[in-house]
Write a structure and sequence with these properties.
By secondary structure, the protein is an alpha+beta fold. It contains nine helices and 33 strands. An eight-stranded antiparallel β-sheet has the order 6-13-9-10-11-8-7-12. Helix 5 crosses helix 6 and helix 7 crosses helix 8. It is elongated.
Length: about 525
């Protein structure tokens, strides 16, 4: 790694060194070098004065550098506000669209804050949570069960995870996960049995980008802290930020400006490298944006003479990571700085969502006994959301088990990630068994298992979670309609259970792909895929 050339020190003496040197040069007849000698006192006073002169003298080279930087147009980067993805939750699905307003000519948008009111964020655009609608087919609920069975239904589109369903328009149940078009699982058991009934389904949450009303690094609010509604949008019961805010920065220091000066000066007119193009794009997109570039690449294919720029807008959403106008602006401003013959290709950042089964982050955790399980699950979910945030995740990096374990171990209240036979219980592939899976006390073999569920399981990589008895098991063998666990099952019989894989995610292979996770950070309904199986 190259070492930065240090600023010169014109005189490395301080006032004590100057004074000592002056006293040492006294003629021999001034043998009294004590403080009772007026000459010594006067010399010490002058030494203090000369120390200040030396200090100012040594600042002169940096002052010259700063003046030169201003002459070539390099100024300090301003303080910036943080950006965050804010989630709004309704009290229940609405019969009409609910619009959470963004900024207008007379309003700065819907505002949310932390508990003390020291940090306030405003939404950057309107958020519409659509009205509930009648789903296709009919469904059956069984009192005391979380399983829902449909007939002629299309649950994967009509009632995805996070939606709520109702047969009477009064009692609403939240969908935990969807196995297929005719089977889904609720977060809580049905209170009554309903057979072959029509049903309504609707969203109760929506996300929108919000920006801090102030600037500075202090505006990077932690996950789950922006929970106070400054206004009262119709139908909204709560709000939170599933991931930490990012992008907030203090005004750039002079030292930092000097450090980036060489690169800034080199790219001020002509883009020579991929990093130059990325720097131009990010400047065009504005504060809080991200950009990456690949030379000799046409999108994802190698192509000589091409440069591909990927953009993430500061106002990105999972459905639009950068608008067509923003991308056009990037190309427009980059073209005059390109070499003759260079072809610029622009793409929007590809956001890979980990928000519903089977692509859902999961973990089995052992908690610190000083924390309650719900709090630990919320903190662990927030750690996942922050790790898998498009605002900060490295472009195109594969999600590894090591990354997942580090994120979970760093969450407040987590003592350690649960492990069996050396396999860490984390992953990004949580789902519910689509059919009945029967555990029997004292047996390590499950035989009442659907072959389709078994076919999804990978030995030594699949964890089956017994949330009823607070335990996790590693699958050692899975074939046909039989599963062998790492040890005998102990506890009351369980008939339904979730499972997930211990495996690194490989979907982020595209160089401009970024992940997104939005696990619940509500302690009254913590993420179903985060489970606590013990305490220390």
């Amino acid at each position: 790694m190259a070492t930065t050339v240090p600023a010169p020190i014109l005189d490395n003496r301080d006032e004590d060194a100057v004074t000592a040197q002056a006293i040492a040069s006294f003629p021999s007849e001034l043998s009294d070098r004590s403080n009772s000698n007026p000459a010594v006192v006067m010399t010490e006073a002058q030494g203090t004065f000369f120390g200040k002169i030396i200090y100012q003298l040594n600042r002169w080279p940096q002052a010259v550098i700063q003046k030169c930087l201003s002459l070539v147009g390099i100024t300090l980067n301003p303080a910036t506000p943080a950006l965050v993805t804010q989630t709004f939750t309704l009290s229940a699905p609405s019969p009409t669209d609910i619009v959470i307003p963004g900024p207008t000519a007379t309003s700065s948008g819907t505002q949310v804050a932390n508990s003390t009111g020291s940090l306030v964020f405003s939404t950057l655009s309107d958020l519409t949570i659509p009205a509930y609608r009648t789903g296709a087919g009919t469904l059956t609920l069984t009192s005391g069960s979380t399983a829902v069975v449909g007939s002629g239904t299309a649950f994967t589109t009509d009632a995805p995870a996070g939606y709520q369903i109702s047969t009477d328009g009064i009692t609403w149940y939240t969908v935990s996960g969807v196995t297929n078009d005719t089977n889904l699982v609720l977060t809580s058991s049905a209170s009554s049995t309903v057979t072959a009934s029509s049903f309504k389904s609707g969203a109760v949450t929506g996300t929108v980008s919000a920006q801090s009303t102030t600037t500075g690094i202090a505006t990077n609010a932690a996950a789950g802290t922006l929970t106070t509604l400054q206004s009262s949008p119709s139908g909204v019961s709560s709000t939170t930020n599933a991931a930490a805010a990012s992008g907030g920065a203090d005004i750039e220091s002079t030292t930092a400006a000097i450090a980036r000066a060489a690169t800034a000066f080199a790219i001020r007119d002509v883009a020579c490298s991929a990093s130059d193009y990325a720097a131009f794009a990010q400047k065009i997109l504005g504060a809080g944006s991200r950009a990456a570039a690949q030379a000799n690449t046409n999108n994802t294919a190698a192509a000589s003479g091409y440069v591909t720029i990927a953009s993430l807008s500061p106002a990105w959403t999972t459905s639009s990571s950068a608008s067509s106008q923003e991308r056009a602006n990037v190309v427009r401003d980059a073209l005059p700085r390109s070499f003759v013959g260079a072809t610029i290709v622009d793409v929007a950042a590809n956001i890979q969502q980990f928000t519903s089964t089977p692509n859902l982050p999961a973990a089995l955790l052992v908690r610190n006994s000083a924390y309650d399980p719900a709090t630990v699950r919320v903190n662990a979910a927030a750690a996942y959301n922050t790790l898998l945030s498009p605002n900060t995740y490295p472009w195109g990096n594969t999600i590894t088990i090591d990354d997942l374990v580090k994120a979970q171990n760093a969450a407040t209240g987590v003592a350690r990630v649960y492990s069996i036979l050396g396999t860490m219980a984390v992953g990004t592939t949580w789902q519910q068994a689509g059919n009945t899976m029967v555990f029997t006390n004292g047996s390590a073999t499950l035989t009442s298992v659907n072959a389709a569920d078994v076919a999804k399981m990978k030995p030594y990589q699949t964890f089956i979670v017994d949330s009823t008895n607070n335990a996790g098991y590693l699958v050692l063998a899975a074939s046909g309609t039989s599963i062998t666990l790492d040890r005998t099952f102990s506890g009351s019989t369980v008939t339904t259970t979730p499972f997930f894989f211990h495996a690194a995610d490989t979907t982020l292979t595209n160089w401009y792909t970024l992940p997104f996770s939005s696990l619940s950070v509500d302690s009254t309904a913590p993420a179903a895929s985060i489970l606590v199986v013990g305490s220390v």
